[in-house]
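chain below, 215 aa
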Amino acid sequence: MTIAEKITKTLRQEILNNTLSQGEPLSENVLGKRFKTSRTPVREAIRRLENDRLVQIIQGRGAIVSMMDISQLSHVFEVRIVLEPLAAESSFVFLRQPEITKLEEQWLALEDRLHSQEIEIIQDISDLDRKTHRFFTHKTPNPWLRTFLSTLEIQVARMQNMAASGLGEATESIRQHLELVSLLKSGDREAFIVALRNHIIISKSYVASNIDLNR
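prediction:
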């Protein structure tokens, strides 16, 4: 992994976790000192994050963590509800039972931890959510879908992290994902796609109700 890739990975995670807030400046000099490197790999990392739409370049101000608003949320989910079921449908025949079973076991393990009232579980649910949706979609033979969804999932993860509020929502998230995995195991493609669309609609409603766009 190059220095630019390491910087990109670190800053991306900090933006997704809201450690770096909306509108926060990203100075090449400050980041260079932080990562003990020249401005060149920092500039490359900022360019990559701009491609992810996590960073904005503003004339006269330089790079800042990108701002979010309710219209952006609507646009992201408008695209997600079309592309993700499309990719999942074309991935369906490539999903193998041992992989599905392993995914189910991971969700059941999180459910057990949730019953123990483990507060730290929220981030683990977010991480497994992202992994699960990649599993549903990224075996599609269409490379364009994979590319578009990779960018989209970063925005979805950021919004979900900003909206995360507690164990009640975690319970519902686990329930929905276990339902999706169960439909995968059954091989019922049509029911799975319907459930996936419903899951995305519910997710949008939850994020819209809980997201703090001032963070």
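The radius of gyration is 18 Å. DSSP finds nine helices and two strands in the chain.
thats it, cya
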